[in-house]
Amino acid sequence: MHFEYRVQGGDFVRAGQASSQVKKILKQLNVASQIIKRIVVALYEGEVNIVAHAFQGKIYVDIETDKVRVVLDDVGPGIPDIEMAMRPGFSTASPIVREMGFGAGMGLPNIKENTDKMKISSVVGVGTRLEFVVNLKE
Amino acid sequence: MKIAELVKAVEGNVICCHENLQREVEYAFASDLMSDVLTVQVDKLVLLTGLANMQAVRTAEMSDIPAVVFVRNKTVSEDMIKLAQDNGIVLIESPYTLFRVSGVLFSMGLKPVY
Known about the structure:
Number of domains of chain B: 1
Number of strands of chain B: 6
CATH class of chain A: Alpha Beta
Order of helices and strands of chain B: HEEHEHEHEHE
CATH superfamily of chain A: Histidine kinase-like ATPase, C-terminal domain
Shape of chain A: globular
CATH superfamily of chain B: HprK N-terminal domain-like
Radius of gyration of chain A: 14 Å
Oligomer: heterodimer
Largest sheet of chain B: 6 strands, mixed
Distance between the termini of chain A: 21 Å
Number of helices of chain B: 5
Number of helices of chain A: 5
Largest sheet of chain A: 5 strands, antiparallel
Strand content of chain A: 25-35%
Shape of chain B: globular
CATH class of chain B: Alpha Beta
Strand content of chain B: 15-25%
């Protein structure tokens, strides 16, 4: 099953709507709640990253029998130093993002923690692609 | 502890989802930092926060948090109530500070996560 969602940069009221819909789909498919939580926490962090840092983005979700693959593709400033961005506590978030309860530099490390595979690629001035996979079976 | 007992202890005003007041909570986590809340793995958790915006309710939704206490009379918006209703999340307003709510609930036996 394949799903696609559009995400608008800066729109903090709608941030999380895609993750919310994916959660409902996974529940309907009777995926174990602990696994749903890992997927949607990672997805929500990624969705908030697009809202916080990019102009716009798209989320592609593929649900297979044994795993869920997610790609978050954004048009935005890109990440100059991915290794630095992965470091817990490092953040370039604006004060507005911080007021929303994010921007503490915990997002990417938390995505890594909740997923079985994770990859980021980025071109400065163009955008960022985050891909992750969560296995549905332990 | 039942959510209903917790409401009483913090002089809480239940904004929505009264039907879930009999659900049990075992842990509490006090934070205004939602990325911190999203790292918590335990279930039966109540979130105590001064952050009254959509992201607090979204975070509860993603983390399967059954109840959120907004401290110091923060106002809960219509959008937040609607999202909470869709997910059965109990929203509670308390006049107490984050420190006092935490202290009261800790002394009643709610457990810290770490």
